[in-house]
Structure to design on (332 residues):
DNA sequence: TTTGGGTCCGAATGAAGTTCGGAACTATAT
DNA sequence: ATATAGTTCCGAACTTCATTCGGACCCAAA
């Protein structure tokens, strides 16, 4: 009997050890980080200082990377969300990443497997602004083509879930 | 000369009117919302109550949707980020969205234009967990196929930029 | 000039974050 | 069994911050 059927488990960043309270705490903070420690304490059956210590530890361990305000892209004048697959000939494109990062329309940059080499998440004012952006991307050396997928509706948009995986 | 060349400008959510201070304030809060109003005031050359009033207004207007903690997916045991294009035969899939939302691996759900009907952003423990997830998606009625793009590296991941668009 | 809306400031108040000392518990070693 | 070290928790004290308030200032419309 093959009791040792080990799946591939990439572990570059060491996973933190978390108990149930840590996970529910992270879940609460991931949906609304403006709650007071006293309020969180009531939900977790803990005192405010105890919650504080846990949050402090989770921050030091890097489980909590930051606290940020979530902005409304449409109200900022960018209602059009698009995913752009970028084809490249060269893999020495990391230099051009700096340029892409500077563009306010670009929210995410990933290198991916599959037909394309890169995947961008971009938010623009309208299709014209998207076209301008694509034109700029095409003008970058090594970027040979793009395929765009315009988001019609977004039904879910959240961060990583702290729910236990096994 | 065609001086009136009007581009398409979708305006479902009314864009808010923001001055320069609002935009820099939003930028600061989008990268770190744990700063005190006094500290923000120093950066903006404003008093703490003035900053408070602006934030309050931006929240009421819905420009600031929430304050959340950003978690590290890898440290939570999900190092593998994948974008999944889902093909569907039927457009009556919105009922199945509720099921997808319950899956902790699924972070984003969009309906998109192009070859596929839906685009998912999912985070899993490993390729095995991804395979299990895909199997579950395939078993949903109306979902005929998927194409997956595994993210090798992520170079940028942020929210909408408050930088002025024109 | 007057009125109203908007934005700002300083001062005061109340709430929340933060620190501290010590108790309770666990695990390991002696 | 007892001792030691490590962890987590609590209540109390302290400090910082958020929030409110009254009034000043500016600008535009009446």
């Amino acid at each position: 009997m093959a009791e040792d059927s080990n799946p591939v488990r990439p572990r570059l960043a060491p996973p933190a050890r978390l108990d149930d309270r840590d996970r529910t705490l992270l879940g609460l903070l991931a949906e609304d980080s403006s709650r007071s420690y006293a309020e969180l304490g009531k939900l977790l059956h803990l005192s405010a200082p105890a919650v504080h210590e846990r949050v402090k530890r989770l921050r030091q361990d890097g489980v909590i990377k930051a606290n940020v305000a979530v902005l409304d892209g449409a109200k900022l004048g960018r209602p059009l969300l698009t995913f752009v697959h970028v084809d490249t000939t060269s893999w020495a494109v990391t230099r051009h990443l700096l340029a892409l990062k500077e563009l306010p329309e670009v929210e995410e940059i990933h290198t991916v497997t599959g037909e394309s080499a890169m995947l961008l998440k971009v938010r623009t004012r309208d299709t014209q602004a998207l076209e301008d952006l694509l034109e700029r991307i095409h003008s970058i050396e090594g970027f040979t083509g793009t395929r765009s997928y315009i988001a019609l509706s977004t039904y879910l948009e959240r961060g990583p879930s702290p729910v236990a995986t096994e």
